[in-house]
C-alpha cells in the first residue's frame, strides 16, 4: 500500500493574521511614561500652632492675581515681575547671604544685601494665587522656582563633589533609576541628602484667596 | 552535452516568504509586551502645560490619576464649559475624590500604600480654584505625594499673555 502523507496545511494566510494582530497592538500601544513636577502637600493639621516669627527680609512673597499678573514682595519693596525674570530673582534672593554672625552664609555668592535673605536655610519662598489664575501660569511659576533651587543645588553639588562628574539633578536622576546598584545608591543618597540639608526647599503655598 | 547546458531563461527563483510569519510574529510579541492599554477614556480636554524641571513618574501601578479640564465637545451640552474633574471614566465632584482615593488604596497591597502618588493631569486652561480644591481634598485624606503631570518643554513659551 502506498504511504499516504497528510496533506499539508496552507500556511500562506498566517502572515495576514499575524499582521492583523500586529497592527492592532501597534495602534493601542502607548509607550510614553508620564513626567511632571513632583511636590509634597503639607499635612492637614487642625491643632493650633504657634506662630513662628520670620524676619520679613527672609520672605520672598509671590502673589498671582486673576489676570495672571505676578506681584513680588521682598526686601522691603513691591513690584510686578514677569515670569521670565522670576528664576533670576529667586536665585538672587536665595543666594544673597546677607546674614551676619551666626546667620552668616558660607556658600552664598550673592551680593550680601542686608535687606534680603540671611542664608539658604532661612530663605522662604511663598506663593499665593487667586482662584481665577490659570493653571499653566501656576505651573510656569512652580517650574521657575524649582529651577532656581536646582541651579543652586547643582552649583553646590559640583563644588562639594567635583570628582563625581555630575550635578545634583543628574545625580538625583541616577539615584531614582532602578538600574543603579544599591551600593551606588547608598553613596549617592548620602551626598544628595547633604545638599538637600544645605539648601532646603522652603516653599510655602498659602491657600488661594477668592477674587471679588 | 549536459555539462554546458544553458540556463533556462533569465528567470530569478522566487524568494521564499516562509520566514515572513516568523518576523511578523516577532514584532507582534514585542508590541504585545510593550503595550499598555489606555485605562481611561478622556471626556475632557487635556492639554497639559509644559515644564522643564520634570521628574519621571516610574512605577505606573503606584500612580492614581485625577483628570481635570473643560468637558470635550461631545459633552458640552450636558455638562457645560466649566472645568470639571474626571475620575476613572466619569465626571466627578470634588467631594468624590476622598472616596476615589480610598478605593484606589484598597485595591493596592497594604505595604505599597505609602508609596502611592497622585498624578494631577490638569488642562492648562483650567483655573487654580479647581486645582486648589483638589489639593485640599487630597490633604484631607492624607494623600500628600502629588505630581503635576506636564509635557516636556519650555514653560515660558506656552504662556499667552
Break the fold down into its secondary structure elements and pairings:
The complex is a heterodimer of chains A (212) and B (161).
Chain A: H1 14-28, E1 35-40, E2 59-64, E3 70-74, E4 77-81, H2 86-94, E5 124-129, H3 135-160, H4 168-176, H5 182-198, E6 203-205
Parallel strand pairs in A: 2-5, 5-6
Antiparallel strand pairs in A: 2-3, 3-4
Helix pairs in contact in A: 2-3, 4-5
Chain B: H1 20-34, E1 50-51, E2 55-56, E3 63-69, H2 73-79, E4 84-87, E5 90-92, H3 97-107, E6 117-122, H4 128-140, E7 145-152
Parallel strand pairs in B: 1-7, 3-6, 6-7
Antiparallel strand pairs in B: 3-4, 4-5
What does this entry look like structurally?
The complex is a heterodimer of chains A (212) and B (161). By secondary structure, chain A is α/β, with parallel strands linked by helices. Chain A has 5 helices and 6 strands. Chain B has 161 residues and is of the alpha/beta class. Chain B has a domain at 50-151: Nucleotidyltransferase, domain 5. The mean pLDDT of chain B is 82. At the A-B interface, helix 1, strand 1, helix 3 and helix 4 of A face helix 1, strand 1, strand 2, strand 6 and helix 4 of B. Chain A: It holds the Pfam family ExbD.
Alpha-carbon Rg of chain B, integer: 26 Å
Q: Which residue ranges of chain A are poorly predicted, with pLDDT under 50 across at least 5 consecutive positions?
A: none
> Outline of chain B, from the CA principal axes?
elongated
Helical stretch count of chain B?
4
CATH class wording of the domain at 50-151 in chain B: Alpha Beta
N-end to C-end Cα span of chain B: 90 Å
Mean pLDDT of chain A: 82
Helical amount of chain A? 25-40%
Task: Tell me the major beta sheet of chain A.
Answer: 5 strands, mixed
Q: Strand arrangement, largest sheet of chain A?
A: 4-3-2-5-6
- The helix fraction of chain B, in percent, is 25-40%
End-to-end Cα distance of chain A: 101 Å
User: What's the rounded overall pLDDT mean of chain B?
Assistant: 82
Q: Beta-sheet strand percentage of chain B? A: 15-25%
User: What is the string of helix and strand elements of chain B?
Assistant: HEEEHEEHEHE
**CATH architecture descriptor name of the domain at 50-151 in chain B:** 2-Layer Sandwich
GO cellular component, one term (chain A): plasma membrane
Protein name (chain A): Biopolymer transporter ExbD
Subcellular location (chain A): Cell membrane
Membrane topology (chain A): Single-pass membrane protein; Single-pass type II membrane protein
Amino acid at each position: 500500500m502506498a504511504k499516504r502523507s497528510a496533506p499539508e496545511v496552507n500556511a500562506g494566510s498566517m502572515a495576514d493574521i499575524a499582521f492583523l494582530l500586529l497592527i492592532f497592538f501597534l495602534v493601542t500601544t502607548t509607550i510614553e511614561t508620564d513626567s511632571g513636577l513632583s511636590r509634597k502637600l503639607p499635612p492637614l493639621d487642625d491643632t493650633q500652632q504657634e506662630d513662628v516669627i520670620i524676619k520679613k527680609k527672609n520672605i520672598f512673597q509671590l502673589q498671582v492675581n486673576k489676570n495672571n499678573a505676578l506681584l513680588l514682595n521682598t526686601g522691603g519693596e513691591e513690584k510686578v515681575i514677569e515670569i521670565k525674570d522670576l528664576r533670576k530673582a529667586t536665585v538672587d534672593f536665595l543666594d544673597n547671604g546677607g546674614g551676619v554672625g551666626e546667620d552668616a552664609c558660607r556658600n552664598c555668592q550673592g551680593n550680601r544685601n542686608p535687606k534680603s535673605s540671611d542664608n539658604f536655610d532661612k530663605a522662604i519662598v511663598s506663593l499665593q494665587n487667586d482662584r481665577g489664575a490659570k493653571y499653566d501660569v501656576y505651573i510656569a511659576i512652580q517650574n521657575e522656582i524649582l529651577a532656581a533651587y536646582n541651579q543652586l543645588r547643582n552649583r553646590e553639588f559640583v563644588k562639594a563633589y567635583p570628582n563625581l562628574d555630575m550635578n545634583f539633578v543628574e545625580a538625583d536622576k541616577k539615584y531614582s533609576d532602578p538600574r543603579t546598584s544599591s551600593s551606588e545608591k547608598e553613596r549617592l543618597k548620602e551626598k544628595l541628602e547633604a545638599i538637600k540639608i544645605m539648601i532646603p526647599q522652603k516653599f510655602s503655598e498659602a491657600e488661594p484667596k477668592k477674587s471679588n | 552535452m549536459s555539462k554546458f547546458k544553458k540556463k533556462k531563461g533569465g528567470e530569478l527563483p522566487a524568494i521564499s516568504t516562509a520566514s515572513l510569519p516568523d518576523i511578523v510574529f516577532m514584532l507582534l510579541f514585542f508590541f504585545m509586551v510593550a503595550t499598555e492599554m489606555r485605562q481611561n477614556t478622556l471626556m475632557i480636554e487635556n492639554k497639559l502645560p509644559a515644564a522643564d524641571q520634570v521628574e519621571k513618574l516610574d512605577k505606573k501601578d503606584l500612580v492614581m490619576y485625577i483628570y481635570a479640564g473643560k468637558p470635550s465637545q461631545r459633552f458640552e451640552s450636558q455638562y457645560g464649559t466649566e472645568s470639571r474633574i474626571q475620575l476613572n471614566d466619569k465626571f466627578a465632584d470634588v467631594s468624590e475624590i476622598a472616596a476615589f482615593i480610598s478605593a484606589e488604596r484598597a485595591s493596592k497591597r497594604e505595604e505599597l500604600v505609602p508609596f502611592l502618588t497622585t498624578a494631577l493631569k490638569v488642562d492648562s486652561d483650567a483655573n487654580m480654584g479647581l486645582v486648589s480644591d483638589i489639593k485640599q481634598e487630597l490633604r484631607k485624606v492624607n494623600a500628600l505625594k502629588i505630581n503635576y503631570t506636564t509635557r516636556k518643554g519650555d514653560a515660558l513659551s506656552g504662556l499667552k499673555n
